[in-house]
Amino acid sequence: MNRDAKFWGSIAIFQVIFGLVVFAVTRNYYIGEEPGQDAPPMSMDRPALELPSGITAADISRLGTAAPSTSVPLDPEQLSRQADEYFADRQYDKAAELYDRLLDFGPNNVEIHNNLGLTLHYLGRSTEALDRLNKGVAIDPDNQRIWLTLGFVNSQLGNVEEARTALTRATQIGTNESIRQSAQTMLEELP
User: How confident is the model over 126-156, as pLDDT tens digits?
Assistant: First the structure.
């Protein structure tokens, strides 16, 4: 089966022409270009993202404006650990932001209200701190720790009677002896 040069030349030309036609057709398909028009930039040709059903723009905005590559986790347990680390490192502004975000996951979680209240106090936003702590007390009036924190913040602000009331409550409820002892010590230090 010896083929001559004319045969192989025609096969080569056919392959080249066929390849160019396939390239032209598929290029137009993927770019969406009509013949005779300049191709639009790729970013303008992409369709808008559609949100899965049930998710609104408000849900997206509650997640914050952080880019996905940032180190802020979306899992509540990870958020809580990160917030506690920021608090321990005295990065109160970052801790407050994460505690506030945690309230989206658990608006009735008294521990989050407690932690956010104390953090706000350390940021010098004591009016907000008292508001947050009072909300926590309203959610669970038998939470010993939040009464201790409420008493501490009030004592720091010079609200002696409010501090006395909160600290006394912290000594009377709950089973945590360490919290009870701290409340008792603060009570004894009040004027």
Answer: 999 999 999 999 999 999 999 999 999 999 9
Residues 94 and 170 in one domain: yes
Kindly state the DSSP code that residue 77 receives in the 8-state scheme.
H
Quote the domain boundaries for residue 105: 74-189
d(CA 32, CA 41): 11
- What b/e readout covers 61-98, taking b as 16+ CB neighbours within 10 angstroms? eeeeeeeeeeebeeeeeebbebbeebbeeeebebbbbb
User: Is the pTM higher than 0.85?
Assistant: no
> In total, how many domains does the chain have?
2
Asked whether residue 67 is assigned to any structural domain, the reply reads no
Kindly state the tokens that stand for 34: 């009509």
Mean pLDDT of 11-25: 75
User: Could you tell me the CA-to-CA distances from 7 to 1, 2, 15, 21, 62 in Å, in that order?
Assistant: 12, 10, 13, 21, 69
Q: What are phi and psi of 36, to 5 degrees?
A: 90, -5
Tokens representing residue 20 in the block: 């160019």
Token pair in block for residue 33: 């270009």
